[in-house]
Amino acid sequence: MSTILGIDPGLTRLGVGVIKKGAGRLVSLVHVDVFRTPAGDPPEARLGALSVALEAVFREFRPDIVALERVFAQHNVRTVMGTAQISGVVLALAYAQGIPVSMRTPSEVKAAVTGYGRATKHQVGTMVQKILGLDSIPQPADAADALALAITEAWRAQAPEVHRTGTTPAQQAWREAEARAKRPKLTQ
Predict the structure, then answer these.
(1) pTM of this structure
(2) CA-CA distances (angstroms) from residue 75 to 83, 136, 139, 171?
(3) Which of 5, 44, 49, 137 has its CA at 20 to 30 Å from residue 129's CA atom?
(4) CATH number of the domain at 2-182, please?
(5) Residues with catalytic function
(6) Nearest C-alpha neighbor of 104 from the set 151, 64, 58, 49
């Protein structure tokens, strides 16, 4: 059995979900939490507080791998910056402890858990509830998202390759196909 730590990064709310992966697609809940920091606090205080909380999670649960949501561009630069900053903290903590990190896009997680890459937060939460056999949907949504990240990692199990190359096998195949399509054709 391996232990997987899913992290939904954010400065205001950071979701943490720990699961155990058994044989096949069998997964079970170990721990779920959401760490919060006040929006009015300085960034260094918020990052420091979250770093301390995450270090405690790493020590207590000793994950074999961390599944982290990949930062993606959106219109709110402030939100993206905070998410990128705390993602950097997670990456540094995992690196310091020799724990591999798998980065997953939101649409990849939605597709893995619900079968549809554009699923709503409620649909993801409902599937997390069903997959883990919970009485209710983990709240707030950051908690369900963290568990969905961990479940995706458990089911996809491609993290070492993603960790080494920075891309998923599908992304790499796409890049290779694009490169072949852009090569000039030789004439004879």
Answers:
(1) 0.82
(2) 13, 32, 25, 24
(3) 49
(4) 3.30.420.10
(5) 8, 69, 142
(6) 151
Rounded Cα distance, 126 and 116, in Å: 13
- The closest of 101, 82, 74, 76 to 90, measured between CA atoms, is 101
Which residue intervals of 62-188 are DSSP H helices? 77-96, 106-114, 121-132, 141-156, 159-165, 169-182
- Successive 10-residue mean pLDDT values, the chain, 188 residues: 96 97 96 97 97 98 97 74 95 97 95 95 98 98 98 76 50 66 57
Structure tokens belonging to residue 160: 């070492």
**Residue 105 one-letter amino acid:** T
| Separation of alpha carbons 106 and 112, rounded Å | 10
Sheet strands side by side (includes 2-8): 27-36, 13-21, 2-8, 65-69, 101-104
- Give one DSSP letter per residue of 113-133, joined into a string: HHS-TT--HHHHHHHHHHHHT
Q: Could you tell me the end-to-end alpha-carbon distance of the chain, in angstroms, rounded to an integer?
A: 58
Per-residue buried b or exposed e for 36-72, using 16+ beta carbons within 10 Å of the residue's own CB: bbeeeeeeeebbebbeeebeebbeebebbbbbbbbbe
Question: Domain-by-domain residue ranges, the chain?
Answer: 2-182
Nearest to 60 by CA among 22, 33, 86: 33
